[in-house]
Amino acid sequence: MGWSMTALHANAVTVRFGGLTAVSDVTLRLDKGEVLGLIGPNGAGKTTLVNVLSGFQRPAAGSILVGETDCARLQRHDFAGAGIVRTFQAVRLFKGLTVSENVEVGYVAAGLGRFAARRRAKDILGELGLAEKADRLAAGLSYGEERRVGLARALAVNPRFLLLDEPAAGLAPAEADALRDVVGGVRAKYGCGVLVIEHNMAFVMTLCERIQVLDGGRTIAEGQPPEIRADQNVRRAYLGSTALQ
Length: 245
Prior knowledge:
Rossmann fold; globular
């Protein structure tokens, strides 16, 4: 069966670490232009699954398909060429460089010359609300601003599929709301599929069209936010009996 180039499809993925099965027979589909939330309790297998989707972990079984290409067979650095890019909870900026230079690094790595990279960095920083910070050292950024710079670097390779690992972790409610609007704008402008791992349920429920829930390395629910709120298995495993009422 052929798969569309407009979808990232994890098919029956299993990951084992010694005798521990961290992810068991999980299937996930991310379409271009949608925002998919991936939630679950700590240890549910979310980060392990995203590590597989981004080439940081090889599965024991299953495939990661974009079109006819099984990306699980690729080297980690080839995933960007397949259109799959991720961010990390720890952004790890170059604190001695300016905000613009941090973003320029991504464009240069993607093959642009320095002048073109500077111009593109200026444009994207404007889109993400960081134009006034462009010439300041990254060491002076707030936590929320660091997350936006990390997002700008990821967009430098024009991804088809953008995987965000807890982008709102540690942010104040106002910062999380602002970042949610930024991520929604990125999806609208770039047309990429966005996968969001996140524990901030207000962030997930108001951003994502569809949510997949893991527990114990398995998918226990999938659906639109109202369906996930009402799912009793999800409430027992993660949300709690009074969550989101």
